[in-house]
Specification:
Layout lengths: L5 E4 L3 E5 L5 E6 L2 E4 L4 E4 L3 H18 L6 E4 L4 E5 L2 E2 L2 E8 L2 H7 L6 E11 L8 E2 L1 H6 L5 H23 L3 E15 L2 E7 L7 E5 L9 H4 L5 H12 L18
Antiparallel strand pairs: 1-2, 2-3, 3-7, 4-5, 6-7, 8-12, 9-10, 9-12, 10-11, 12-13, 12-14
Helix pairs in contact: 1-6
This protein binds adenosine-5'-triphosphate (ATP) and magnesium ion.
Adenosine-5'-triphosphate binds next to strand 2, strand 7 and strand 12.
Length: 254
Amino acid sequence: MTRRRQVYEGKAKVLFEGPEPGTLVQYFKDDATAFNNKKKGTITGKGVLNNRISEYLMTRLGEVGIPTHFVRRLNMREQLIKEVEIIPLEVVVRNVAAGSLATRLGVAEGTMLPRSIVEFYYKNDELGDPLVSEEHITCFGWANPQEIDELMHLALRINDFLSGLFLGIGIRLVDFKLEFGRWWQNDEMRIILADEISPDSARLWDLKTNEKMDKDRFRRDLGNVAEAYQEVARRLGILPEGGPRDIKGPDTMQ
Ligand SMILES: Nc1ncnc2c1ncn2[C@@H]1O[C@H](COP(=O)(O)OP(=O)(O)OP(=O)(O)O)[C@@H](O)[C@H]1O
Ligand SMILES: [Mg+2]
């Protein structure tokens, strides 16, 4: 295979040109960052696990009619995706108070929200991804009102489906971040789910013990970060007993 041309390197992933026009290869790194890049580290095996977990969740979502960018997994760390024009918003869905919502509004972490909340953050690292309202989004042209409705609708459907899926394996879906993009087919534009869904982008708590099984273990130096990601994969039924090294693929050696 010829060397792929790199399109973008982010904090957790690298994008390469795909084999056909309109496709990209998404490579998952072990690098982890938190607090807008102020804390940096690596979580051994994270890339392999997130590639798998995101593949699994996007495939399940696709089966229930949520359009996603996921095409197929290529190997341990790479997946083929549809190239989209990313809408510069982080769409966050919350079911339980945690993270910035708990801090900003003084709500105790772990408080069940009476209903799920959808929030929008402007994707801009220099500004620290600020919370924005629909007014800001339409005023600055990041998305139009119809697109905002579609984002909300998709985000809530994804939340319903994933909340149930995780509940079934003893995990509470506390909150999660989604990215969407515009995808053109012939002359029609569709909004599809992009980026990743993984313990990097979601808060997952064990239902019985409330133990954190996500990137908060890294953010707060709670230890056993890779083990927590592995446990999520194991419960999803996508991790062979021996750990990530047991998953057959061309790039087992890192
Ligand atoms: N299907 C897609 N088409 C085009 N770009 C995508 C697609 N899916 C995800 N992306 C973008 O690819 C990048 C993935 O890299 P990574 O998550 O490491 O970025 P990041 O460091 O979080 O930076 P950013 O602030 O740009 O998200 C992100 O910028 C994301 O928006
Ligand atoms: Mg990202």
